Give the backbone structure.
Amino acid sequence: MPKDAALDWSPNPDDRFGGKGRFGGVAGNFSGRNNTTTPQLFFPWPMLTGQVPHVVDPREASWTGALPADIPDTWEVLVDGSAVAVEAVFRKTVPIRTARTEPENLVHDSRHLLSLILARPVPPGARIEIRAPGLEVPVATESRPLPSEAVHVCHAGYSLLGPKKAYVGLWLGVDRNGNHGSTDRFLSDNTTWRLVDDDTGETVMLGLLRLSKPVDEPHLEDLNFNGCDIYEADFSLLDHAGTFRVVVDGFGSSVPFQVDENPYAEVFRLAARWYFHQRSGCAIDAEHGEGRVRPRNGHPEDGLAIWQTGVQLGRTSEGFMWEPYSPVYLARQPRDAASPDAWGGWHDAGDWDRRVQHMDAVYQMATMVEMFDSARNLHMNIPESGKTFADPAVQARKNADDLGDGETVLPDLIHEALWGVSLWRRTQMPDGGIIGGVEYSLDGIAGSVSWNPLQRTYAYAPEEWAAYRFVEGAAKLGHVIATVCGDEVLGAALLAEAEEAWTWAEAQYASGSANDSETSAKNVGRSRLRAAAVLYRATGNPDARQAFDMHNPFLPRSPEGNFDTGPGHYSYACYDYVLARKEGRSVDDEIADKIAGWVAGKLSWEQRIGQDYGLHNTSKYGWGAGWFRFGPGSNWRAGEVGLDYLATGGNAARIRDIVIEGMWFGLGCNPSNTSFVQGLGKRDFGDPLVVDLEGFCMVPGQVSLGVAAGEMRDFEKQKLARAIHPASQDQWPRYAQIFESSSAVLCAEFDMRGNVLEWLFACGFACEVIEKAKAHKTGVN
């Protein structure tokens, strides 16, 4: 459009459509305009093109919830030229992309799975014609089985050195009377499967399906999350690489997949690079963007004003309290002081907040480098790759004197963790205080982008809870940098900052800062103990040991007890206390033994841990729907398996299959045959929620939650009305609730310290156990 085109726009940083306006007479959304180095953007509202086929057009429905496609008489099926009656039709419909053609009008692309139950079987090789008014369906001949929605495989492939299985079975949706359909009556233990070389068509292995998870066996709450029988085809004995398909008699085939030594190496690299793509405060250039470029974002030097407030993050809805609602509360604060050093860290989810909870990712990245050769050797293609901390390409330094030893080349994953912690290092107060992070006035405004936002930006105030969270991440990172990576100068700097934050937080805590509520006391107390264990191992700080000994959840030495919490809240952090003993620090042996015993007894190896999340689930693990929130990676509870790996000194043999099988559900081996990770599937999740990428390219490695976590909220249901069938979420088996729309936040969002972090750990762990298996196979120690 011409530069002098008429502009009609009234920006509002507190309105989700505050970017709405007209440019040259065209309606659309504007970005902000305060960036001094990049231009303002304009996104015209999209226009609807094409028509919905008559049989699946909801406007043609003759009654609520049913379409012409749901009526058997709609269909005409010819088998070798002879008509075959359609006895029933089952349908399930999901959105695969959602867009607004105007502020209050949502439109959806949909995927309709229609299953026609015929009056008689179709013989092999028959010519099939399917006809319906207004719908063109190609003629299908079974000379080569077509991909079937009922055959599920890992899209990223399988390792030669681990398990290789396909899962077969599908809930088909409902018919026009609300009756549920499935593949159960068409499958049995007598059904043959074949592994076929995709290049030659040769059958290289065959067998009979085995019932893995019957429909009458519940997962949880007396519910079967699959809604059907699930069978498995086990081809783990395959001993050569190639491209294959699993073909099931009478059903069709899987999509093609690779088998090689380590198909998860690229999966791991992309999982780590998603953190790079979510950085705040740096540009992404062509060399490192691998298909994506983006201006520098979130940086005060580009005109972004970050207003310092007196609001403590922990005491808001984005910390550990239900209220006040943080963005509204921040907007009421006076804007009279800027925070020019509050840049760095990672953006989160569909917005651009950077909260101190991201120290969980810093801690875990450091843990991975400590545990895994695969993490130490990972090459991510980031600006810092292969460089020391003093290199000019490194922008994560807190000041000009922050150079490390100038000689040690740090692992890429450590460089990424240093970016994650950089915001808090730069903004640490002279007295050691730590702010909660940076927040925006709204978590999404149409047209707004992170490098030119419409929203106002605020910095949280220092608080003891944030300081303890910082201590945990910074102490772990400093310890690993000094002892594993070898840069003792940089490691010592981080540890000094952690001790300063600890001292400041302890003074606040001693003055009764956490006594404002029972919730504060519990949450601050938990964070204090996690920080204490990690800091003591890293520095030997006697006050940290005293705090941990007194109130740890395993054997507290104080009459006050353990702050009403359990061992599971502490995972790796408490195990640092055990590691401190192994490294020669003085500890309370009874406490250390209790922690080690808890870890050793936590897991049972009678069943795959992957069975708590996936097509082949059992009722063994009694977690609620909340663990859906963590999406791929937590299907085998990465943290718990990792603890056992630590406790056994890195013994990967007995957990190799558990870890590898845990990858599959998120990589396409699920009821939707959809990969929750962009760029790694034959069918990627269709509409991830990433505000910065609306109108831009998708980024390989981006993770979506994938499966709805419990009941969708009212605003999600309203947006997706008539886009999902059956309409009631209660009618869907839980694993089938994969709704690929940015309006289905429970499916489309991501969390940098939740599912993204779990997925990163899962990928690194899978690569590590495969490399260990390779070394064992070749006799290399």
